Amino acid sequence: MRAVAFGLLAFTVSATLCAPGAPAQPTKPNDPNKLIIKPGGSGAVPVPGGADPLAKPGFIVIRPNGKLPSAQEPPTPEPVPKRPQNPLETQPARPALDVPPPTDKLDADTAFDYWFAASVEGQRLGYVQWGAKRTKKNDRVLLVGIKYQNFTLARFGQVVNQWGEESTVELEDGSVLVTGVRQGIGKDQALVLSGMVEGNTLKVTGGGAAKGATDKPFPEGVVGVVREPALFKTAALKIGESYSYPAYVGVLNVVVKMTMTLEAEEALTLWQKEQPRKLLRYITKMEPIDGFKLPPAYTWVDAATFEPLKMEFDFPGFGGKVTFLRTTKAAATVPVARPVELFNVQSIRLDREIAGIHGGRSVVYTVSAPKDDDPKTLFASDARQEVKNFDPVAKTFELHVRAARGPLKGGAKQPAPGKEFTASNYFLCWDDDRVKAHAAAAVKGLPFGASDWDKAAAVEKWVKANMRAFEFSQAMATADNVAKTLNGDCTEYAMLSAAMCRSLGVPSRTVLGLVYAPARDGKPFLAYHMWFEVYAGEQWLPLDATLGLGGVGPGHVKIADHSWHDEKTFAPLLPVLRTLSAKPAVSVAKWEP
Fold this sequence. Notes:
Largest sheet: 15 strands, mixed
Low-confidence stretches: 2-7, 19-91
């Protein structure tokens, strides 16, 4: 089930990297240019028309210009069922969802058609369809497989529907001929990639602005969507034995090695009112990609038919164990009534509040990350932040973070950036009439000969003033799409800002990281966030259009940066998924206002 797990990478993009930063304190309630991030209740900014439906204990309200993102009351979370001490032990466990067992009524040309109800810790997410059909072309039998995911989530009470699919066309022997990926990334926008296998190369093409996607090595034996579920039977493993195979992950446009091991035979009750049945439990692990590896996935298959019936893996981006339970199409596609609220599980709690942090000079954070193999590399080290006093046994270190508000006189000169930081590409598409027009409007009032920093600061100010609202339905919209809608969350603010700077000849890149956000109980969050950097005055300098402060303070903690050169996938986001998986604990050791 590796492709389904990897598909969650794309879904986590909008769920994770959309935490708009906190405004400089104090915030004036009537200032239309300030983003209000405050707890509900006492001290909250008054909302026209009455009480704030998002004002609940421990629930952060984030809204632009004092307006709510939606007039609807956020869904009440479903109760989370208690989990057994070891969910992998043989037991008649309560199913994650109360759904009926699957039915197998297939058309003549249908090879298989699996439907799964998806949940996290017992709370419904949506559904997954995994199926394949036979067809004929030029006297050859072809199998067309598809894996489609449709999830409904919430962030700050705003409900978001996210979807994506991977597909392959294969021969009866499992040889892959064609690959396909479609992923919703923005308002009325999808990332579309297709590949044709020629020898040991996957010739990849993109739809629309993704034209010219990078070809990839494609060794013999790559397992596609159709062949994947058959491996449980064809591998013919005995308990304790393993089988490794290459698999294509379309959302990252890369082939990775997967290793499947048969761990045990056990009897489980998967559906209520059903008797326990004999199942085989497999564990599948992937090789690391750029230092990131997805948590292992467990699959339970019927011991007689070898069909997958249940899949489960830990996914920090959704706050716990994600379960796919096989059922009927009707049961799988039931609308999600109470979406999972993601902010509560995707942010890092700090131990104390820092008033005015975005106007301060520096913070020393103490970080503990015992779950990561090399925790000192979880966060970037550059001219603004530095890892010190690393303890390899306890896996703790200090992270020193300083403010940066423009070129630093006497600061160390940094190497000039390459062409990839000025070129137009799929995500940072500045070769677009709207992007160019917005950039021209941003610098219209600047004097002749204005510096690159002045231009970038003007772009930050313009984007802050002209993006209409935070709106979390975007996964990772491209800059040209954002220029058209002027709508989105922090990813869209960063993409548009970086593209506008490039159109003015200012080298730029986006930054992935964390930003300080206050909370009602006095223990603030470090929330996942995106901003941008420009090369000006021979230095890389940060800016954040969600705040518009002419730089960033020590409340911005950098994980990684990227030019998005020649990139048509979500691979640049892997460092964020790694940090999520590490679940670091962060506290404030020292603060300099």
